[in-house]
């Protein structure tokens, strides 16, 4: 309908047209307002931050406690944290008949809520600790700034209220590096077992992970496709071989084998899988001296064999992330009992592996180091005080 036809409309037609336009505009306005309300709710949802409102006396207690909690995540012990200028009782006794050395730090300003001196090992990333402390204070509307000493790398954190435009320092935290303190941490190797149970596409993704770990090579008879995926990935892998009786059909070595036969088997494995990190010999029936003879025979070649006692077998009924939490708890527990080099045999689903890789930082920031089987064995050879003991051949 052009303008000329619109002008020529009679009265009733104009009324109908006007009514239609009013209805149309009403509908459009309704949907416009509905969309606006939704957008306003979304904006409110994302723009509202939860800030805990506490009294000054409460903040004076909560903020120092929160800082202590954060640094503990990095493996910092309670005895390494003290109030600035306060000498612990053991040091007082030690210095009783000695000339007390002056603190290398200047005295803290007066009027502070708190002033802490935290001694940290040389391998602790102070910048990362500063970042975590800052994040932990956000919910209280506080923040901190760090000043690094260029001579020794020590870091001073000044805590302030974000609402205070002058950023007046209310608390100080001195992060002081020292080679006299060491965290309780360990070298860890994870060996993934039964990877053939994982769908091939997900297994390929797992094997591309930058995390350091090793896998048990799937059996060539049952799952040659999974074995091919592992070999093509160039991932560090192990062979598992069983010693059994003539009735144990799956055993690679049998008690009734002639010496020439089992020696030929050892030689064949060493040539066929020369890229393997090692062989784990399983001898559940304690068949001797065959078990010892096989270990010795492998020692004559470039492929070393180890008793299965070299492994920490982690078995848990937990699933998903709970299983990963249980694994980490076990690692920390064994470390606290003196473990410094541990090789864990674990069985993960693809989802559990994802949980592991997303949470592994919790152990890494405590000082735990992760290696492949090949690398952790090299470290054990260089450091005979670790748990290598007699499992290694030779």
Describe this structure in words.
The chain has helices spanning 3-7, 11-47, 56-72, 89-94, 126-137, 200-207, 224-233, 259-272, 290-298, 321-336, 350-359, 361-364, 373-382; strands spanning 81-83, 114-120, 142-148, 155-161, 171-177, 187-192, 214-216, 237-244, 253-254, 278-282, 305-307, 312-313, 341-346, 369-371. With 394 residues, the chain is of the alpha/beta class. The protein folds into two domains: 56-95 and 107-177, Beta Polymerase, domain 2 (2-Layer Sandwich), CATH 3.30.460; 184-394, TIM Barrel. Helix 3 packs antiparallel against helix 5 (126-137) and helix 6 runs parallel beside helix 7.
Q: Tell the overall outline.
A: flat
Please give the number of β-strands. Answer: 14
Low-confidence stretches: 37-49, 388-394
Please report the number of helical segments: 13
- What is the CATH third-level topology name of the largest domain? TIM Barrel
CATH class term of the largest domain: Alpha Beta
Strand content: 15-25%
| Biggest beta-sheet profile | 9 strands, parallel
How helical, in percent, are the residues? Answer: 40-55%
Average pLDDT, all residues: 85
Order of helices and strands: HHHEHEHEEEEHEHEEHEHEEHEHHEH
Task: Quote the distance from N terminus to C terminus.
Answer: 99 Å
CATH-level-2 architecture of the largest domain: Alpha-Beta Barrel
What is the compact description of this entry?
By secondary structure, this protein is an alpha/beta fold. 40% of the residues lie in helices and 18% in strands.
